[in-house]
Amino acid sequence: MRSQIKSALVLLFTALAIPACAASIDDKIPDQQTINALELRASQAQPREQCFLYAELVHDMIEVSLRQYAAGDAENATGLLNRARELTHKIHLALSDDNKRLKNAQILLRHTAFRLNELLHTSATEDRSLVQQTLAEVNDAQNEAMLQVFKK
């Protein structure tokens, strides 16, 4: 009887914990004002915080770009993709041994690469080269961040 109660409690706690764990990085919906504020904050941040802030900025830009592509606004979406490519270079420059939240930045970049891969499969043929270039640069930044994480 006791083992059945324990099993039922474990099952109950597991069922309740799954929705909490399933909370996605994409729960917040970024907009242009959020992106502008984050870009300003990243440019003025301490060097050890910039890597994560730029990773968050690139992620938000890709999320907005995905929504713009879905809404049929390819011109603004490609503009955001180009800007995100520029910012991935800042991630490379901001990487160092004493970065704050480096693992979080790496995870965020991995998720961003996943979302770009989704966009690659759904984008129009004329936009695929830009999406592939952006994906390659985000993957490079993610790999470099991962190497820094394991270097510690």
Radius of gyration computed on alpha carbons: 19 Å
Strand content: under 5%
Derived from helix and strand composition plus strand pairing, the structural class reads mainly alpha
In total, the number of strands is 0
Number of helices: 6
Major beta-sheet overview? none
Q: Please trace the helix and strand order, writing H or E for each element.
A: HHHHHH
Mind explaining what this structure looks like?
The protein has one domain. The protein is 82% helix and 0% strand. It has helices at 2-21, 32-44, 47-71, 74-94, 102-122, 128-151. Helix 3 (47-71) packs antiparallel against helix 4 (74-94). The N and C termini lie far apart (49 Å).
Structure, briefly:
With 152 residues, the chain is mostly helical.
Q: What distinguishing features does this structure have?
A:
152 residues; mainly alpha; 0% strand
Secondary structure: elements and pairs:
Blueprint: H1 2-21, H2 32-44, H3 47-71, H4 74-94, H5 102-122, H6 128-151
